[in-house]
Write a structure and sequence with these properties.
By secondary structure, this protein is mainly beta. It contains 4 helices and 20 strands. It has helices at residues 61-66, 142-147, 152-156, 199-206, and strands spanning 2-8, 11-18, 21-25, 32-38, 43-44, 53-57, 79-83, 88-89, 95-97, 104-106, 108-114, 130-137, 140-141, 161-168, 177-182, 185-191, 217-219, 227-228, 234-239, 243-251. The strands form 4 sheets. It has a 7-stranded mixed β-sheet with strand order 7-6-17-11-12-14-8. It has a 5-stranded antiparallel β-sheet with strand order 4-3-2-1-5, with no helix packed on it. A 5-stranded mixed β-sheet has the order 9-20-19-15-16, with no helix packed on it. Strand 2 and strand 3 form a beta hairpin. The longest helix has 8 residues, at 199-206. The N and C termini lie far apart (35 Å). The model has no long low-confidence stretch (mean pLDDT 96).
Amino acid sequence: MQLVRYLAQDGAFWGNLEGGRIHRLSDMLGTPTGSEDMLSDVSLLPPCEPRSIVCVGKNYADHIREMGGSSDDLPQEPGLFLKSLGTLSGPGDPIPYPAWTGNLQYEGELAVVIGKEMRNVPEEEALDYVLGYTCAIDVTARDKQRSDLQWTRGKSADGFCPVGPWLVRDFDPSAVSLETRVNGEVRQSGNTRDLIFPVQAILAYISTFLTLKPGDLVLTGTPEGVGPLQVGDEVEVEIEGIGTLKNSVEEA
């Protein structure tokens, strides 16, 4: 059973998806309302309503190497950056290709949605604060990430964070495969066992200085194989035990 956020004719709702049927909930953490919708009759929305979107950079050694680093460049603590709330988009939403970049790239990632307020939580308790897990694409204007003083334009343009298609709650994030495909061709093939900082370490570290709230979104890093996108490309991120997020690139 998956937890979904979706748009029906009478509004946006949370629900439990089971066998193509959605059982509405009163809210993200709520109880069933007794109403039902068919998946075929609704549009899926991003399965989170964050106050903060926190991302980890350089969290796979192979990705560090492909970006020009070496074994000596492994970080001693998670390297974090923020994406603006305007980056958030859902399954099937277009990935915009802005006119001001000539090097738009994909980064497939495991994403975590927070279920309860988290502040100064020890690593051994961190996963107890997770609502669920989903797929994400950290869309990056690589040329602007490298040329601008900060990463704001390169990482935080509108639509630069597709997430979905749903949340999986009973899930062990420690050793699951992640695959990114562009137009059906495999571009990234990784496993979360290779994360330099595992999910619980990331969340505990963030909570030492930033209070994570229910609905907040944390992207955990991308494996080797990032690369360019073109208008018309279809990007798929598939994570074992979760599902597949699909989005296509359109001219902005």
